[in-house]
Design a protein that fits this description.
The complex is a heterodimer of chains A (356) and B (530).
Chain A lengths: L4 H25 L6 H34 L16 H30 L6 E8 L2 E6 L4 E2 L2 E2 L5 E2 L1 E6 L4 E7 L16 E5 L4 E5 L5 E5 L5 E7 L11 E7 L1 H9 L8 H11 L25 E3 L5 E3 L2 H9 L23 H13 L2
Parallel strand pairs in A: 1-7, 6-12
Antiparallel strand pairs in A: 1-2, 2-3, 4-5, 7-10, 8-9, 8-11, 11-12, 13-14
Helix pairs in contact in A: 1-2, 2-3, 5-7
Chain B lengths: L18 H5 L4 H29 L10 H36 L8 H20 L22 H30 L12 H33 L12 H35 L6 H14 L15 H29 L8 H24 L1 H7 L3 H31 L5 H28 L13 H31 L41
Classes of the chains: A alpha+beta (356), B mainly alpha (530).
Chain lengths: 356, 530
């Protein structure tokens, strides 16, 4: 097939128009990006959109062209007998492969940044249940959904400072914390903040993490994106990003005078008899000391090791014999599963974090 | 039931008479027709659920049903369409009828197993629909734990129904593997079998290897619901994410159970209606096998935000990208086949071209989802809904419709009215894009899937989508009328109305009881248009 110059120019113009159009479209198809991660995601999105449109034009444009050009004229048309062409086949396997590998690596790089929380992040505990959100700050401040003047529900609003990384430590809880009803069980939810292009499932029985750093003040929707029953689509919350001074004033305002999570944890440390076996000053009692525990590398009896993070400490409280730190006796500590509420476990973890 | 052959000559339709002769038939063609009718009925049911979903989403708030009802309608739409329509659609209906004919066999290797697999599908569907008597399951077709652990008879019925229907798929797959290996006509070497057979063969391997994992998963789910054994419930020491691994270990390969046979149909349609040998027979045949093989190692791409490790996410992203390569190869090969052909735009070809149009969009949007960073945003939004409908409906369903119009003259010895068939295509194709293209935009904007209600800013595009769904509905009503009209009033087709080269067209229409009057002897490849 000889490519005519006019056709070629037309094709180029079409591709150019598509590239320009889709770049403009790319920004309107996505919600406004308010974090640098979101901006990175949008770059990949724009690239994929343009690459897709070009591929589509080549493939489907080619298809329409052939259909037009090689219409059946009579029932006895002679057709070419072309069984294969190895060069062509290699090219249209290898070029897509290269493009796929390119976006794979690019996607990996941005994903890596999404998964690795900056060290200076402000931490907020998120508790999800059927069908609402609850946000707990280290200061002890708690945010839940409210009612406006007309009696309409207002979503739970997580206030965060602009320009500061925020790390969410998320868990799933029962509808009623003290419920013994076997049908009231924590289920999967998912925290989705479209403006930051981040999403993370919330899994019963463990913590999952997510972080973002909002650079633009504003109110942003949070959706639940893991089906959790008939109230699923009503399970919304807001993230309100405000300048740091305003955030600090808000944190100190109403409800801010409560005991900090760490202080609540300290009280539990004594009240729940942790102190009988674990010291807070580094001395060895029956079990490992809490001092310096946070973030340390734990070597287990029988091999293996893990970093002491939220999930490790949670497991060590609720199901302590799952992993025993080397040189310590097994089977001494009772399981606290069912003995401590999710909030109490959160508080003890926050207390341990302060014992550096 | 279909009327007897056009001229009263001996064929599989008039071989025996009476409903009982059908219900106990061991003839692969009759079993294929029984699947056709069954799948059409299930499609009607699943389609009505789909229209109910779109009608509810016409506006914000409650439109025609409560959130509780919506959760059930959504669950049954997904479960019926996946397990009872798309999975058996091509292999058990078109495959059953034409795989033996295309390799020059008298029947499948195990005719009794073949009949049993049809009863498995019916029984599985019956048990699953029993759940409606218990108020219906509201878990979504994915049955994610712990939400699905509620000791509810409805969920148990659904799980057992899926378990039983799964055996239909396993037995059909087993039958096809053995038939392809053992019953080929003299001279029909493996590199002379039509590409439809290659596609079904690759599918059959997945059906046999993957479906038992689904069976195990739903049995564990049922056991957890009935006996309270903690596999997936964290309160009992189980792991809810383990369920997702189990589920997608089957359900991702199942996506290829749904699409590979469609690839096979498209290869047949393109060669026949371009009257040209396929470009790159070997590449198309082996790319089906490659997709089948890789399909077992990509399930984690459904779980990028489930809490699995970063490492796992990256590995699954890489492997998923690999699937893109054999898929792209097929598209390029089909389009290259059109080059210097003699293209007849009869209705089956329109569906094949429509397939390529829609499947290309479904394919490229798959790359958006395989890329981890962008998937985090798109996961569980309408972008995913649009993507898999472009692949499953725009792909598989278009291929089924093309296949029905293509093989209808062979199955029943009569011609459908091609003008009406083309009208059904226009409605389905246009309606499909009007329905699902806006959903890509909705998903990009952040509208999550499985939502009964949504923010007011999403309403506009939802209205467009709903209008599109009604156009699709009209298209299928026209298609149904065309098919029924063809059955009752269609003109005699003759043995080979499209001038195709594969073996099923070398015998009379409808075919005789054992397919061929004399055993065919094969001396060349399947698409020798010289």
């Amino acid at each position: 097939m000889k490519l005519k110059p006019r056709l070629f120019a037309g094709l180029l113009a079409a591709v150019g128009a598509v590239v320009a159009g889709s770049t403009a479209m790319a920004s309107t198809f996505m919600p406004p990006a308010v974090t640098s991660t979101a901006a990175e995601v949008d770059k990949i999105y724009a690239f994929l959109l343009i690459a897709s449109l070009i591929s589509f034009i080549i493939l489907i444009g080619g298809m329409f062209y052939f259909v037009y050009k090689y219409q059946r004229r009579s029932a006895t048309d002679k057709t070419a007998y072309i069984s294969h062409n190895y060069t062509l086949e290699f090219l249209w396997s290898f070029i897509p492969f290269l493009i796929f590998m390119f976006v794979f690596v690019w996607g990996w790089k941005v994903y890596h940044d999404m998964r690795n929380v900056p060290a200076d992040a402000l931490e907020v505990h998120v508790m999800a249940k059927k069908w609402d959100w609850r946000f707990l700050y280290k200061s002890g401040k708690e945010v839940v959904a409210g009612l406006d003047d007309k009696g309409q529900k207002t979503p739970a609003t997580m206030v965060v400072p602009v320009g500061r990384p925020v790390k969410l430590i998320m868990g799933s809880e029962k509808i009623s914390a003290n419920s013994t009803d076997p049908t009231d069980r924590p289920v999967l939810h998912s925290f989705y903040l479209p403006a930051a292009r981040v999403k993370q499932d919330i899994v019963p029985g463990r913590y999952t993490m997510l972080w973002f750093n909002i650079e633009k003040p504003g109110d942003y929707w949070v959706f639940c994106t893991e089906f959790c029953g008939s109230g699923h689509s009503a399970m919304k919350a807001m993230v309100k990003a405000v300048p740091m001074p305003e955030f600090e004033a808000w944190l100190a305002s109403e409800g801010g005078g409560a005991l900090t999570l760490a202080d609540q944890g300290k009280a539990l440390f004594a009240a729940k008899a942790c102190v009988g076996c674990h010291s807070a000053d580094g001395s060895r009692v029956v079990g490992p000391t809490f001092k310096g525990l946070w973030g340390s590398n734990r070597t287990f009896d029988g091999g293996g090791s893990a970093k002491a993070d939220e999930n490790y400490i949670r497991e060590s409280i609720l199901n302590p014999n799952a992993h025993i730190v080397a040189t310590f006796p097994k089977g001494v500590m009772p399981a606290y599963a069912g003995q401590l509420s999710d909030d109490e476990v959160n508080a003890i973890i926050e207390f341990i974090k302060t014992l550096k | 039931m279909a009327s007897t052959g056009a001229h009263g000559e001996h064929n599989y339709l008039n071989h025996q008479k009476g409903i009982w002769s059908w219900l106990t038939s061991l003839d692969h063609k009759r079993i294929g027709i029984m699947y056709f009718i069954t799948v059409m009925i299930f499609f009607l049911v699943g389609g009505l659920f789909a229209l109910a979903i779109r009608t509810e989403l016409w506006s914000t708030g409650e439109t025609i049903m409560t959130a509780e009802t919506y959760a059930r309608v959504m669950t049954y739409h997904g479960a019926v369409m996946v397990f009872l329509v798309i999975i058996p659609g091509i292999p058990a209906f078109l495959g059953n009828f034409f795989l033996p004919m295309q390799i020059g066999a008298k029947d499948v290797a195990f005719p009794r197993l073949n009949l049993m697999s049809w009863y498995c599908l019916l029984l599985g569907a019956g048990v699953a629909l029993l759940s409606l008597l218990y108020g219906g399951a509201d878990t979504g077709w994915t049955f994610y734990t712990p939400y699905s652990i509620k000791h509810a008879p409805a969920v148990i019925c659904m799980a057992l129904g899926v378990f039983i229907a799964g055996f239909s798929s396993i037995l059909t797959g087993l039958n096809f593997v053995v038939t392809t290996h053992k019953l080929r006509a003299p001279g029909m070497t493996m590199n002379r079998i039509p590409l439809f057979v290659w596609a079904l063969y690759s599918t059959a391997i997945i059906q046999v290897l993957a479906t038992p994992v689904l069976a195990i998963t739903v049995v564990l789910l049922a056991a957890e619901n009935i006996f309270g054994i903690g596999f997936f419930d964290p309160a009992l020491g189980g792991d809810p994410v383990l369920f997702q691994h189990f589920f997608w270990f089957y359900s991702h390969p199942a996506v290829y159970i749904m699409i590979l046979p469609a690839f096979g149909v498209i290869s047949e349609l393109i060669t026949t209606f371009a009257r040209k040998t396929i470009f790159g027979y070997t590449a198309i045949a082996y790319s089906s096998l490659a997709i089948a093989a890789v399909s077992f190692f990509v399930w984690g791409h459904h779980m990028f935000v489930s809490g699995q490790s970063e490492f796992a996410g990256v590995v699954f992203s890489f492997l998923t990208m690999l699937v893109g390569v054999p898929t792209a190869i097929k598209l390029f090969n089909w389009i290259a086949t059109l080059y210097k052909g003699s293209i007849n735009l009869a209705s089956p070809m329109l569906f094949a071209l429509g397939f390529m149009f829609l499947f290309t969009i479904g394919g490229v949007t798959g790359i958006f989802l395989a890329t981890v960073a962008t998937d985090v945003h798109f996961h569980d939004t309408y972008f995913v809904v649009a993507h898999f409908h472009y692949v499953m409906v725009g792909g598989t369903l278009m291929a089924i419709m093309g296949g029905i119009y293509y093989w209808f003259p062979k199955m029943f010895g009569k011609l459908c009215n091609d003008a009406w068939a083309r009208i059904s295509f226009v409605f389905i194709f246009v309606g499909f894009n009007v329905t699902f293209y806006p959903q890509f935009v909705l998903g990009s904007l952040g509208m999550p899937r499985r939502y009964f209600d949504y923010l007011p800013e999403y309403e506009h595009l939802n209205k467009v989508s709903t209008i599109g769904s009604y156009l699709i509905g009209i298209g299928f009503v026209v298609a149904l009328i065309t098919i029924i009209h063809g059955l009752l009033k269609g003109k005699p087709a003759g043995p080979n109305p499209w001038g195709a080269k594969t073996l099923e067209w070398q015998t009379s229409s409808p075919p005789p009881h054992e397919n061929f009057h004399t055993t065919p002897i094969v001396t060349a490849g399947p698409y020798e248009y010289r």
